[in-house]
Fold this protein.
Amino acid sequence: MSTIPPGRPPVVNPQDDIYLTLLITAAVVLLIGVIFVAVRSYQLFGSIWPPAGA
């Protein structure tokens, strides 16, 4: 029978890293949103940046 050495308890790796999955999902959604806003801005104003005073 093995014994646990004194000190730190053993670290168990999670089966799924849900936070990494959520971080990747959020980054993808943000990237899609930025691309969408850039495309719509180009369609409306002819450039990514709106004209001054608009």
